[in-house]
């Protein structure tokens, strides 16, 4: 097995075996070769357009207690907030005005937002000529159906890890099988589906990451969000020592080889670990950025992990800075909705 035989195969078939993926995840070759190839494939399939998705973190209440997550139920040290529906709609209006074509509504699993409230919000947001992505966790088929009927276009639900034992250790009271069923239900309902996982979890092997990558390939996701796991000081995993930045870049690049036309964000967690994290991800296969458009006062309390970059600028300045940054990379902001264009 050599790097060039693997990349040649990936280029022809967009498929690799677990062993070949494992080889790419190891350190036995110059990973710049992998990054360059992923960048080339991204450019070939998707060109130089970067899609911006404005992220609204509308509630940090969560009924779950995932060991890795800063907004887990047992964290009594954070102040909890909920953005009320009408305020959320006004944030969305401002973001649409600045030029966003997609908004992502993310929260903990918070039952305050009933189906009726969410339908109302989605309905109002759709009047703004936006694509709407939801990222609000595990719900019943009927709830997903109700949001879809109200106009939601996409859904993000990470599988977190495909290693069931690890999942059940990290997400107590949750069921991996149910999470997978949610992904299948979302696909059945016609959502564009985003999933993904964390890289660098305690006792997560490279074999397991290879399985995670193959899981997303098999599921045929429209979007893959990969983030390094960053230990949060107010969680049981606070003492984990890891440094998964480079490995996360490799995972992004491998996903680009296997799913050449999907949307892959340069996630905020990459930026939290490295000042140029987002830029590097964009150069290793990513084609999406999710700028935070939540008001600073709320956004500060939505700390899934430490070191999250906070949006101090106005929406307009933030948008212009991103546009300039992209220009230096030879890229530009896409003006369409950025749905997954299948080849
Ligand atoms: N409640 C929603 C949104 C979860 S938060 C849901 O269940 O989908 C979004 C993502 O943040 C999670 O899916 C997880 O992958 C990531 N995340 C949480 N804690 C993290 C940490 N400490 N480091 C890195 N990523 C984390």
Describe this structure in words.
With 343 residues, the protein is an alpha/beta fold. The mean pLDDT is 98. The protein is globular, with a radius of gyration of 19 Å. Strands 1, 2, 3, 4, 5, 6, 7 and 8 form an eight-stranded parallel β-sheet that branches. The protein starts with a helix and ends in a 10-residue tail after the last strand. The chain has one domain (3-333): TIM Barrel. It is built from 14 helices and eight strands. The site of S-adenosyl-L-homocysteine has 19 residues, from loops. Residues 68-69, 106, 108-109, 135-137, 157-158, 160, 198, 227, 229-230, 232, 269, 304-305 line the site of S-adenosyl-L-homocysteine.
Fraction of helical residues: 40-55%
Given the helix and strand composition, which structural class is it? alpha/beta
Estimated radius of gyration = 19 Å
In what range is the share of β-strand residues? 5-15%
Strand runs, count? 8
Separation of termini?
A: 29 Å
- The multimeric state of the shown protein is single chain
CATH class annotation = Alpha Beta
Kindly state the mean pLDDT as a whole number?
Answer: 98
**Which cofactors or ions or other ligands sit in this model?**
S-adenosyl-L-homocysteine
The total number of structural domains is 1
The CATH homologous superfamily: Aldolase class I
Largest sheet: 8 strands, parallel
The sequence of SSEs as H and E is HHHEHEHEHEHHEHEHHHEHHE
Spans where pLDDT lies below 50 across 5 or more residues: none
Q: Helix count?
A: 14
CATH architecture: Alpha-Beta Barrel
Q: CATH topology, anyone?
A: TIM Barrel
Overall geometry comes to: globular
